[in-house]
Amino acid sequence: MAQDLYQTPARKLDKFVFDVLQPDSTFLRQAGQAIDTICEFLKTNCFADRPPPRIKVDRIVKGGSLGKGTSLKGGSDADLVVFLDCFKGYNDQETNRAGIIQEIRRMLEKCQQQWHFEVIIETSRWPNPRVLSFQMRSKTTVNESIDFDMLPAYNALRKFCCSRGKPHSQVYVELINCYSRGGEFSTCFTELQRDFVVERCTKLKSLIRLVKYWYKQVRQRGQSLPPKYALELLSVYAWERGSRDRAFKMAEGFRTVLELIRQYKKLCIYWTINYDFEDELVAGFLNKQLRKPRPIILDPADPMGIVGEGSRWDLLAREAEHCCHQQCCMDLYGVSVQPWDVLVSAASPQCLIVSPESSRPPAPYSETPWPALPAVTMPEGTRKNVDRREGRILQVLFLLFMLP
Predict the structure, then answer these.
(1) Please, which residues bridge with residue 57 across strands?
(2) CATH number of residue 260's parent domain
(3) Is there a domain that residue 352 lies in?
(4) pLDDT-derived band of residue 362, with 50, 70 and 90 as boundaries?
(5) 227: domain range?
(6) How far is Cα 231 from Cα 239, in angstroms, rounded to an integer?
């Protein structure tokens, strides 16, 4: 359990993040060297002995906590998404990725003896795995390791030119047309997922570190909890809607994220930073997504993915409730730190929680839809009489208010 965090006074959470959670420069340098080694291996050696036509690596994108700048001391994760020229579309990726992963694994086992890192490769239990997972441990630094997820992917963003830094809507139109399972091709958008977090202020990244550390401490083996990415998105949302101050109080930010988790049954969050409602097909799909049962947290890079869908939010909410009563959420006088004023519930069941960047939101989802009232159009003369009558009533109320 997170006893060290729970026993830390709220006013000292910044120090806790700096002393306990933030990795030192030596580890970050070694992590960078390890990533460079793997990337060089992928570009030059991985497919070198394959018969023609040789597979070419278009580019490699670094994601995960190391790519986003939210890594934790003692162990971090890095997603290396390898975009290959042999994938001509989403379906190509799904059909051929298992063979590519097998080839990468074979060459990784062959080349690891040349490196200054110990490599431990995980065996997948899936017949058509999406990822090759392995751990690299330093041979010189004790208790320092990096968990790698290597994912071959279709280079969807390169195919369609981007305008104003935003992907062309055709990227998502193509994705919707071959849609099978939510988030199946989210690896194609790792770059957008990374940029969504990496561009945030330093202290918000510290809040993400704190939330991920809490999650890591309360998670138990066998529990299907929401992924860490869901908590990253909640942290960003909490700061966007509740503060936007680069020097916010860490305890207030942490308390707000916990409150959002506690109110998970009301969550419906999305951003329009990469996709929006301008294209008719995309808009129709988004409307369907946002009418699904809550909690809804749409991946800001991939609208197919509802992050944490089907997970045990109830277990995480129970831990969040417990955390709210610990010292890390109490002030000097033992009073609970108040969360930011972020919309998490309303009297109407039709209220949406949306990001401030969102535009043209769809009709809200409701578990128990209220019947729509028919529109009534009054004749012009009747409407004028009503307006005059309302004006006289307001005058009378004003005079009554002014009487002693």
Answers:
(1) 84
(2) 1.10.1410.20
(3) no
(4) very low
(5) 3-329
(6) 12
